[in-house]
Amino acid sequence: MSKLNKDILFLIFEELQEDSKSLFSCLMVNRLWCETVVPILWRNPWRYNGINYNNKRSLFIIIFHYLFDDIKEFITNQRIQIPSGSNQSHLFDYFSYCRSFNVNTINSIISIGSPLVYNQFFMQQKFYYFFMKRCPELKYLDMRSIKHQIFYFPEAKARLDSLCELKCDTSIDSSYFYGLSSLCQYIQSLIIINTDPKPNHGIVKFIEVQNNLKHFEWKDYFDDDILTEDPYEEVFCALEKKADSLNYLRIYFQYVDNIEETSLQKILPKLYKLKILTLNDYRLFTNEQLEQLRIQVYHDLEILSLEWNSFSVIPSMIENSGRCIKKILFKPENAIEYECNNFNEDSLNFIRKIYENCPSIEYLTITFPPSEEHFAEFEKLLKICQNIKSLLIIIYNVDKIETSEKILENGKILLEILVRSAPTNLKEIRFYEDFKFSLENLEDFLEKWRGRPAISILTSDPIYERENYEKLINKYQEYGVIKIFKHSLFVDEIDYHFMYI
Fold this sequence. Notes:
Number of helices: 20
Helix content: 25-40%
CATH class of the domain at 275-501: Alpha Beta
Structural class: alpha/beta
Strand content: 5-15%
Strand order of the largest sheet: 1-2-3-4-5-6-7-8-9-10-11-12-13-14
CATH superfamily of the domain at 275-501: Ribonuclease Inhibitor
Largest sheet: 14 strands, parallel
Shape: globular
């Protein structure tokens, strides 16, 4: 590693850009590594979840260093304590690398300097002005809770014109979006947190003026449980006009019981270029609309992520796809809740549709009863779909309650199938519902898994906390057979976390 040149190191560190812990460690190796890592870290320094920005005095010192000369008189008059080191030169011009702006995080850091709201407001204003002037180009803007009208700054047009991703919330006044609309018309990714259940006409206008919108997310996050006005209709009608470019749609409605019908239901079949579709509740759709969704053709669909599983809809969407699907995800607790009448037959059809139409599938949630026929079809799926990396498996018998002995027998059959037929790419298995493996069967499985890539196992059964199981698991972790073995009673620890704020 010490002989690698800067270009090679940069390519390596680029692959670690989501891993802040590793990148921070690289800073300390030597000067070359530090010089290579800093531009990557500072491209979007506000993104790292493991950092407590409210207590990062070093970041405050860096920000204060850039502002010091402009606000020196103000600091003196307001008796703001100057942090030590703020007037010293730095090794790097940090903000020359920065391509992102996160209002909440920056405000939290600046608040370290003074508890007074007026002082914070003034320093925020100065920093935003400096940033818009100094930043070579702005690619990502998270402006939730913004109070300053940055589009009036002299350099605003040049900076906002290059913006690719915007994250905002509906509490921001409509006039703010009107101001942005005249400067910022080439957003590719728009993420909206709906914190106010009233229509925001500024957001509607902002969507309308976009010329290359590809990625759209909407997340309800408000306290009221009664909608007096429809906050969705105008937004989704504007979104319909972006059908020629839109390929990513993620929607989370909070109180669907209060929604008689939204324009999303009407426009979804018209968004024919979707590659990624994530929805949170089947109650969004009437039977007639579900039928429309069932016959909809998405030739480019790669990810289908639903909080609910509808065997009357998903298999048809799979069959109508262009054989490009890589992920089919739904929440484990909703796997069979809504359609139990024909579960055995429908789940068999679901498995077949997967191996007939999804040769590239990588992540798959799958549910079926523990019958001989279902196990045989599941094994056939594993043999055909050789790109599978991760499985979330729910085995559930809707006809009867299984005995403990039968559950163990089912577990043994499943493990034998995985040993015989699991693709070499499979690196993670998530088990939910009626799963138990005897100590003997689990050890046999792990022993036969030797020589393959280390497997990560997540399960909802507490049996694996027993001392004899923990001893076995620890042994095979030491052997390098198991990468992670995690048990949790919480379903959110088992599923794929496809809904988020």
